[in-house]
From TrEMBL:
Protein's organism: Apiospora kogelbergensis
Pfam families recorded: Epimerase
Keyword line: Oxidoreductase
Family note: Belongs to the NAD(P)-dependent epimerase/dehydratase family. Dihydroflavonol-4-reductase subfamily.
Keyword Oxidoreductase among record annotations: yes
GO molecular function annotation: oxidoreductase activity, acting on the CH-OH group of donors, NAD or NADP as acceptor
UniProt-recorded name of the protein: NAD-dependent epimerase/dehydratase domain-containing protein
Occurrences of domain NAD-dependent epimerase/dehydratase (ranges): 5-263
Length: 349
């Protein structure tokens, strides 16, 4: 049997592609989910992609915040990729509770890894976010792995439920990542510890969203262009990265503990405003029979974005050159991410 890598939150957008990357690297997958049915959908999709069902194990963890939640799941694994985040109900949950749930689940995976990982556990990779890197309100400048959010936690502490959704999410991600680094410093585990931060995701999911209303926020501008609607700007910044690239970096960090230990690794590829997306799709769909009759949003072609889809003057931008240098691989081109995503969305029309 091949060594096994644990992915928490297997049914997530990123987790599905991460499972694919793990299998492609020759390792088996164990994935946790709150409901087995959701995990089995991912397993079935991976089997259809050509991977043996014997290499994919789904484990139910109904509540990731309770003591010992991950003890059984961690046992026997070569690496842990912690992608699960219990903040799905962020719009209905008071900000302090959002932070509590996020940090509790992070503490649980760390405790389980330390107590039950054994000698075979070589690495733990925590999926953080760029939300842990910029202030509230963000500064329109270059950001990289040296930057931290220093305001969101204080806002939640001072304002409580009135802190708002944005502060809640940023505080949850910042507090959770800080917890990871305190754990590494205080416990000095034998396994490596790495945190990965990513901008908004583009790219096709392993399991498409059941309905168009459930399409992830990060990729919604592509759907809006495909459906003929003027795309709404993403919150704070327009930087994106292909979900398959983030999966690749997560697996890279898991399999290279010596190089990745103690590192924060930012993933961000291009600036992708709505007009850039529209122009890419206008060029791609021209003359294609399968796209006949689809009324794409056109906008004002050629305006509002820099050549090469790079940083735009006066905006926050993310410098992810460190990840490229460390892994030796550049990001999937924006054109590829947009086109591959649009082909999935054509099925919703």
């Amino acid at each position: 049997m091949a060594p096994k890598i644990l992915i928490t939150g297997l049914n997530g957008y990123l987790a599905g592609r991460t499972a694919e990357a793990v299998l492609k690297a020759g390792y088996d997958v164990r994935g946790t989910v709150r409901r087995l049915a959701a995990g089995n959908e991912v397993k079935d999709a991976l089997v259809k992609m050509g991977y043996s069902e014997d290499r994919i194990e789904v484990v139910e963890v109904p509540d990731v915040t309770v003591s010992g939640a991950f003890d059984h799941a961690v046992a026997g694994c070569h690496a842990v990729l912690h992608l699960a985040s219990p903040v799905g109900e962020i719009f209905e949950t008071p900000a302090p509770e959002v932070v509590r749930k996020a940090t509790s689940s992070t503490q649980e995976i760390l405790d389980s890894a330390l107590a039950h990982g054994g000698e075979q556990l070589k690495s733990l990779v925590y999926m953080s976010s760029t939300a842990a890197m910029f202030e509230v309100d963000p500064e329109p400048r270059r950001h990289d792995e040296t930057d931290w959010n220093t305001t969101a936690e204080r806002e939640v502490q001072e304002k409580g439920a009135d802190a708002g959704v944005f502060n809640a999410y940023c505080a949850a991600k910042t507090a959770s990542e800080k917890l990871v680094w305190r754990f590494r410093e205080e416990k000095k585990p034998k396994f490596s510890v790495t945190a990965v931060q990513a901008s908004y995701f583009f790219g096709p999911p392993v399991v498409p969203w059941p309905t168009k209303e459930q399409i992830a926020l990060s990729i919604s501008p592509i759907w809006q262009v495909v459906s003929g609607i003027e795309p709404q700007p993403l919150y704070i910044y327009q930087s994106v990265v292909d979900v398959r690239d983030v999966a690749r970096v997560l697996v890279w960090a898991a399999l290279r503990p010596d190089a990745a230990d103690g590192e924060r690794i930012l993933c961000s590829g291009s600036r992708a405003g709505g007009q850039a997306i529209a122009d890419i799709l206008a060029k791609y769909t021209a003359g294609k029979k399968e796209w006949e009759g689809v009324q794409l949003w056109k906008g004002n072609p050629g305006k509002g974005y820099a050549e090469g889809y790079g940083p735009y003057e006066g905006e926050l931008w993310l410098d992810a050159s460190k990840a490229v240098e460390m892994t030796g691989q550049d990001w999937i081109p924006l054109e590829t991410s947009v086109v591959d995503s649009a082909e999935v969305f054509r099925g919703y029309l």
